[in-house]
Specification:
With 475 residues, the chain is mainly alpha-helical. It has 18 helices and 8 strands. The protein has 3 domains: 116 residues, Fumarase/aspartase (N-terminal domain) (Fumarase C, Chain B, domain 1), CATH 1.10.275.10; 247 residues, Up-down Bundle (Fumarase C, Chain A, domain 2); 57 residues, Orthogonal Bundle (Ribonucleotide Reductase Protein R1, domain 1), CATH 1.10.40. Strands 1-2 form a two-stranded antiparallel ribbon. Strands 3-4 form a two-stranded antiparallel sheet. Strand 5, helix 9 and strand 6 form a beta-alpha-beta unit. It is elongated and about 100 Å long. The N and C termini lie far apart (100 Å).
Length: 475
């Protein structure tokens, strides 16, 4: 076989407005995608699968809307819908090779979708790949521009990731924390502020605080993600809607909602929806905040489980894996450390999304691909981290109740309860003497005559100190 024959078997010729391009013979993509592959060998990172599926959703919705409006023949529309369904299902993920670091509008990804769907639709309709019986621009992209398709896909992908992945995972974590809060509610321990002994607290109260922190994070994400429900589709090139039917935006948005189950709608202002990505920036800010919550909880639990003999040792951590290649028997809080690292990544991602969301000039933001990709990475990392943290760490924690009780009874902070009875200065003197003589606050307070044994039982009861009130008084 000749070299020419080998080439003919491996490649086919596709054409665009710039001329001919050799495209792999088994590829559904066409000339513009191939140009992008060759132009952007930058990150070796294709667009996220959720974003690719969202492009399929947009193309399907557009074909259905244009068919309804008499702008696309039924046969062509049916073939486009069938091909788009395959993209949504992930059947052609290997046909989307365009790198994240491409044209800032995401035009290369939009054309990648147009070409793949057009060529596959041609096959569905009985034609062949590359025969243009279904055209990537004239049919698949009819009434659309990359400038409204890509921001629409960004919102669909981001909102879907938040609702389908992140929020359920955070709910799982909140439930695990709530379960531990109930289990530990009777465990009285030393509270700590500034990493110094403070008045007593129940371990269940600490875990209840962690649960509420995660629950409030869920609420913040839900509020911030609400603006992602607005879809830019129908604005075309600059937001004016040139070359699209007046009824197309609302009709297409309704089809997107039907396909995804997401409560989406046409954007309030198409110019804002294409020129800026404030909604993505605000939503990612909420991701950063909830990531910080997870980081704080993970750090607290690591500290409470420190030891086992020379740390705080109030919690016993699960033994998930050996902790050291040199120290036998060592077990580390590896899952919590994973959460800490995810937070570091999300903080960095927030800088990327914030910078990208604010950039671009005039009618178009030009950081769309990296904003989309980074947002989806943060969502996926947080969802996976929250679920793993809940199931492999939080749910398996146990408390050393005896150790907690021993520690709290020796705390100098118990002297705080003496304030109403003997005043701050006298209480401080009791605490200092107890510390200097290695005695308990109770022992010194009784020895100095500040309290009787009976009064000490009431005023210096650590468990009673974990509830609001002034001990030793009627108030």
């Amino acid at each position: 076989m000749t070299d020419d024959a080998d080439t003919a078997d491996e490649y086919r010729i596709e054409r665009d407005s710039l001329g001919e391009m050799r495209v792999p013979a088994d590829a559904y993509w066409g000339a513009q995608t191939q140009r992008a592959v060759e132009n952007f060998p930058v990150g070796d990172e294709p667009m996220d699968r959720r974003f690719v599926a969202a492009l399929g959703v947009v193309k399907k919705a557009a074909a259905r809307a244009n068919r309804d409006l008499g702008l696309l023949d039924d046969d062509v529309a049916d073939a486009v819908v069938a091909a788009a369904d395959e993209v949504i299902a992930g059947d052609h993920d290997d046909q989307f090779p365009v790198d994240v670091y491409q044209t800032g509008s995401g035009t290369s990804s939009n054309m990648n979708a147009n070409e793949v769907i057009a060529n596959r639709a041609a096959e569905v309709a009985g034609g062949a790949v590359g025969d243009r019986s279904v055209h990537p621009n004239d049919h698949v992209n009819f009434g659309q521009s990359s400038n409204d398709v890509v921001p629409t896909a960004m919102h669909v992908a981001a909102l879907g990731a938040v609702e389908d992945e992140l929020l359920p995972a955070l709910a799982t974590l909140a439930e695990a924390l709530d379960s531990r809060a109930a289990a530990f509610d009777s465990v009285v321990k030393t509270g700590r502020t500034h990493l110094q002994d403070a008045t007593p607290v129940r371990l269940g109260q600490e875990f209840g605080g962690y649960r509420t922190q995660v629950e409030k994070g869920i609420e913040r994400v839900e509020r911030a993600a609400a603006d992602l429900r607005e879809l830019a589709l129908g604005g075309t090139a600059v937001g004016t809607g040139l070359n699209t039917h007046p009824e197309f935006p609302a009709r297409a948005a309704a089809y997107v909602a039907e396909e995804t189950g997401l409560n989406v709608r046409e954007a309030d202002d198409h110019f804002e929806a294409q020129a800026a990505h404030d909604a993505m920036g605000a939503a990612h800010g909420a991701l950063r905040t909830v990531s910080g919550s997870l980081d704080k909880v993970a750090n607290d639990l690591r500290l409470l489980a420190s030891g086992p003999r020379n740390g705080l040792g109030e919690l016993d951590q699960p033994e998930n894996q050996p902790g050291s290649s040199i120290m036998p028997g060592k077990v580390n809080p590896v899952v919590a450390e994973s959460v800490n690292q995810v937070h570091a990544r999300v903080v960095g991602n927030d800088a990327t999304v914030s910078a990208g969301a604010s950039r671009g000039q005039l009618e178009l933001n030009l950081y769309k691909p990296v904003v989309a990709q980074t947002f989806l990475e943060s969502t996926r990392l947080l969802a996976n981290a929250a679920e793993t943290f809940a199931e492999r760490f939080v749910a398996r924690l146990t408390a050393d109740e005896v150790h907690c009780r021993e520690q709290v009874e020796r705390s100098m902070a118990l002297a705080t309860a003496l304030n109403p009875a003997i005043g701050y200065d006298a209480a401080a003197a009791v605490a200092k003497r107890a510390l200097a003589e290695d005695r308990t606050v109770r022992e010194v307070a009784v020895a100095e005559g500040h309290l009787t044994e009976t009064e000490a039982d009431e005023v210096l009861d650590p468990e009673r100190m974990t509830s609001r009130g002034i001990l030793g008084t009627e108030r």
